[in-house]
Write a structure and sequence with these properties.
The chain is an all-beta fold. Helix content is 0%, strand content 52%. It is built from no helices and 12 strands. The chain has strands at residues 4-7, 10-12, 18-24, 31-39, 46-52, 57-59, 67-69, 73-75, 80-87, 96-104, 111-114, 118-122. The strands form 2 sheets. Strands 2, 4, 5, 6, 10, 11 and 12 form a 7-stranded mixed beta sheet that branches.
C-alpha cells in the first residue's frame, strides 16, 4: 500500500524559510506526478507545486520565485521515493496545512494518494 509521510512544517516568522519533505513507499516508476498542495482554514485545497515523471514543474502563481520543488529522488532497495520543497520569503498567507500528493499508475491500486499533512504557520 502506498503511504506518504510529510515532515518539516512549523512556526516561522514572515520572511523566514522552511523545508518540507515527503517520503513515499512506492517505486519511482509508478509515479506519474508528485507535488504539494495546501489548505488554509475555510478554503479549498490548492496546488502549490508539482513535478511530473518527465520533470515538468508547475507552481501556483502565488509562490513563484519563493518556493522551489525538488526532483523526485529514490532509494530503490527500500522501494521509497522522496520529494522536498524549499519555501523562502514566507508570508502570513502561506499559513496552511501542506499535503504531499502522488498520482500513481501501473499498480494494483492506481490513483491519487495523500499524506496526513503538516502545519505551516507564518506569524510574528
Amino acid at each position: 500500500q502506498v503511504q506518504l509521510v510529510e515532515s518539516g512544517g512549523g512556526l516561522v516568522q514572515p520572511g523566514g524559510s522552511l523545508r518540507l519533505s515527503c517520503a513515499a513507499s512506492i517505486s519511482i516508476y509508478s509515479i506519474y506526478t508528485m507535488g504539494w498542495y495546501r489548505q488554509a482554514p475555510g478554503k479549498q485545497r490548492e496546488l502549490v507545486a508539482s513535478i511530473s515523471n518527465g520533470g515538468r514543474i508547475n507552481y501556483a502563481d502565488s509562490v513563484k520565485g519563493r518556493f522551489t520543488i525538488s526532483t523526485i529522488s529514490r532509494d530503490s532497495p527500500k522501494n521509497m521515493v522522496y520529494l522536498q520543497m524549499n519555501m523562502n520569503s514566507l508570508k502570513p498567507e502561506d499559513t496552511a496545512v501542506y499535503y504531499c500528493h502522488a498520482e500513481v499508475r501501473g499498480v494494483s491500486d492506481p490513483g491519487d494518494y495523500w499524506g496526513q499533512g503538516t502545519q505551516v504557520t507564518v506569524s510574528s
